[in-house]
Design goal:
510 residues
């Protein structure tokens, strides 16, 4: 094994170790992770919330034992593979080991670390964007058509993971048109490559058609309740903070496309970034949607910087360029990662109120970042649901009905009761509810703002509040666990009606 590969393996090992140390043991998994994990039990070519790829990795996680170690392993793996692609891009461009090491450090100690702590489609999304850009780089460099097909495969797999990658294509097309690489549109292999993308994504597209395009409903809800709070100026400023410790490398990359003779033919990458950011800004996208644009630029920026520092005086600045991203990452880590318990993070926020603005999707400022509040209270919830279930008569069919997918997924992941399944009319669960058995008892998991109504209690012979989520730092704080025993009416018919009403709402929106 040569020296460069040894260094690459070292950086990959560092990446994995870092990802596991960035989360304090006081946190559970994230709300969204439970939904993705539950998809493993309902494998399909699509879901209301996401395309199917994440469910395949969820299935692997269950085969490997369903531990939190494996839940965290896969996003870390995708982050490591992203670093490996940039490493290989630098190798293809003739960069030095120093350039490869600098780029790796810039990526390891960046916002990628924040995304890679969560089992969501975002980590693979960034990997897919980087792979598409890497394939285009190889095509521009060699002119070999096989790289167009690899590009097409990357797009297809990216679509099966997250539709966000379509914005990369929307930015690439005009970027190609205004550069010398516009000649690729005369190459029939480009269209064959797009055909390959279409074939790879086709099963999901057919699923969308068969299910009346639930992606339209999902985008509608995202726009109505989340993106409406996104400020376009905030989107632009957030781009700086994703790689604020290594932004100088990105700036040098932008310069290199116009000043470095060997890099001028790769100007398509900077223009693709400009066009894609413009599109995202117009649609009020969340800032992190654009992170996939940046890894490839570190290949060019690191090489250009190593060239600038190749002079005799430059050897003194080479280690400084590596230390800056690490130092600023360490400074910002207490404000950007759950490395301490919630009380610790609150103290950090009090010391740095201007640097730790915890604005949630509701547009309000809170004590903790939303992602961290979404990682609390779940084990407590599952324990209290297990307690409620233990009080239900044996042999009678008991159903757990939750208000949202986080509650249902967390119960299904942490429950100690074999065969216990929670349901909800929220997100993908609306298509997973099985009413083939007559419901006798219900455990209601209800957000505190809603409470349990007297009408609901009247349907049963006995009612008992089991408890609430007591962690004041949890987003689910105050959530009620209520046991209803002895069904006196046809609960199955009521649920069937509510399910049908929910599905009708989806169709009307679509």
């Amino acid at each position: 094994m040569n020296q460069r590969n040894i260094f690459l393996l070292g950086f990959i090992l560092l990446k994995f170790i870092l990802q596991y140390f960035l989360i304090d043991s006081s946190y559970d998994l994230h709300r969204d992770e439970y939904l993705h994990l539950d998809q493993a039990h309902h494998l399909a070519w699509g879901y209301i919330s996401v395309p199917p790829m994440t469910s395949w990795f969820s299935y692997l996680i269950y085969l490997l034992g369903k531990s939190e170690f494996w839940v965290k392993f896969f996003p870390a793996l995708f982050g490591a593979l992203t670093i490996a692609l940039v490493w290989k891009a630098i190798e293809r461009l003739g960069g030095s080991l120093y350039a490869q090491s600098l780029a790796s450090i810039c990526l390891i100690f960046s916002a990628l670390a924040r995304l890679n702590i969560l089992f969501q489609p975002n980590s693979f999304d960034i990997l897919a964007w980087t792979f598409v850009f890497y394939s285009l780089l190889c095509y521009i460099q060699t002119g070999r058509n096989k790289w167009l097909y690899w590009l097409g495969a990357g797009l297809g797999l990216g679509i099966l993971n997250k539709y966000n990658i379509a914005f990369q294509l929307l930015g690439l097309v005009p970027a190609l048109l205004i550069t010398s690489e516009r000649k690729v549109f005369k190459n029939p292999h480009l269209y064959a490559a797009f055909g390959l993308s279409f074939l790879i994504a086709l099963p999901n597209l057919l699923w969308q058609v068969q299910n009346d395009f639930p992606v339209v409903w999902h985008m509608h809800m995202l726009s109505k309740y989340q993106l409406v709070h996104v400020n376009r100026i905030d989107f632009i400023t957030e781009q700086f903070f994703f790689f604020f410790g290594s932004v100088f490398v990105l700036i040098l990359a932008a310069i290199s496309y116009f000043t470095h003779p060997a890099f001028r033919k790769y100007q398509v990458f900077i223009w693709a970034t400009v066009f894609t950011l413009s599109i995202f800004t117009y649609f009020r996208a969340k800032g992190y949607y654009a992170i996939g644009l940046y890894p490839i630029h570190f290949a060019f920026g690191a090489i250009y910087l190593s060239h600038l520092l190749s002079k005799s005086w430059g050897r003194y600045l080479k280690p400084v360029a590596m230390i800056i991203p690490v130092g600023l990452f360490i400074f910002a880590a207490p404000m950007t990662f759950p490395i301490g318990n919630p009380d610790y993070l609150k103290r950090v926020k009090n010391r740095h109120p201007d640097l730790m603005e915890n604005r949630w999707e509701d547009g309000e400022i809170h004590d903790l970042p939303q992602d961290f509040a979404d990682m609390l209270g779940w084990k407590e919830l599952a324990e209290k649901v297990d307690l409620a279930y233990s009080k239900a008569p044996g042999g009678e069919y008991t159903v757990i009905i939750c208000d949202n997918y986080g509650q249902a997924g967390a119960i299904n992941f942490y429950t100690k009761t074999v065969g216990l399944q929670a349901i909800t009319l929220n997100a993908d669960y609306v298509n997973w509810i099985d009413l083939s058995r007559q419901i006798k008892n219900i455990i209601l998991v209800r957000e505190r703002v809603d409470g349990i109504t007297e009408r609901e209690i009247s349907f049963f012979e006995k009612s008992e509040e089991i408890g609430i989520i007591s962690d004041p730092n949890a987003r689910e704080y105050g959530t009620i666990i209520h046991l209803l025993l002895g069904n006196k009416t046809d609960i199955n018919a009521i649920l069937e009606k509510e399910i049908e009403q929910k599905r009708t709402e989806l169709k009307e929106i679509n």
